[in-house]
Automatic annotation (TrEMBL):
<dbReference type="Pfam" id="PF01381">
    <property type="entry name" value="HTH_3"/>
</dbReference>
<feature type="domain" description="HTH cro/C1-type">
    <location>
        <begin position="24"/>
        <end position="78"/>
    </location>
</feature>
<keyword id="KW-0175">Coiled coil</keyword>
<dbReference type="GO" id="GO:0003677">
    <property type="term" value="F:DNA binding"/>
</dbReference>
<feature type="coiled-coil region">
    <location>
        <begin position="92"/>
        <end position="119"/>
    </location>
</feature>
<dbReference type="InterPro" id="IPR010982">
    <property type="entry name" value="Lambda_DNA-bd_dom_sf"/>
</dbReference>
<dbReference type="InterPro" id="IPR001387">
    <property type="entry name" value="Cro/C1-type_HTH"/>
</dbReference>
<protein>
    <submittedName>
        <fullName>Helix-turn-helix transcriptional regulator</fullName>
    </submittedName>
</protein>
Length: 123
């Protein structure tokens, strides 16, 4: 299974046909990180991480350890698909999406309050 076909279940990345890039993507997504956040955590350019995720290149052994630490998976899982991989946290993903929606609504409400206060102060 290739990660470009969409996330089925996280444990499908342990299948023999999954690539290192597939498992890197699963680990990053399982940790709730987007490409930019994970690249920053690793001290890399996002393009470097993107290249790894599409199997254009591979991280060094020392970076594999850092990736495992940042994403909470074992280095062995990253390399082989065996061992401790990412959590299949669908409920957590749903909660994160709801939280993002609420933050967006709060920002919109805050901007509306500021506009109303500004209008009232000039009226």
């Amino acid at each position: 299974m290739c990660h470009k076909q969409g996330m089925e279940r996280m444990d499908s990345y342990a299948e023999p046909m999954a690539t290192l890039g597939d498992r890197l993507t699963a680990a990053r997504e399982g940790a709730g990180l987007d490409v930019a956040a994970m690249a920053e955590a690793l001290g890399l350019r996002p393009e470097t991480l993107e290249g790894w995720e599409v199997d254009q290149a591979e991280p060094t052994a020392s970076l594999m350890g850092r990736i495992a630490t940042v994403t909470g998976v074992s280095p062995v899982w990253l390399l082989t698909g065996q061992g401790a991989g990412p959590k299949d946290d669908r409920a957590g993903a749903d909660l994160r999406a709801e939280l993002a929606d609420l933050r967006r609504l709060l920002a919109e409400a805050s901007a509306r309050v500021e506009r109303l206060e500004e209008a009232l102060s000039h009226g």
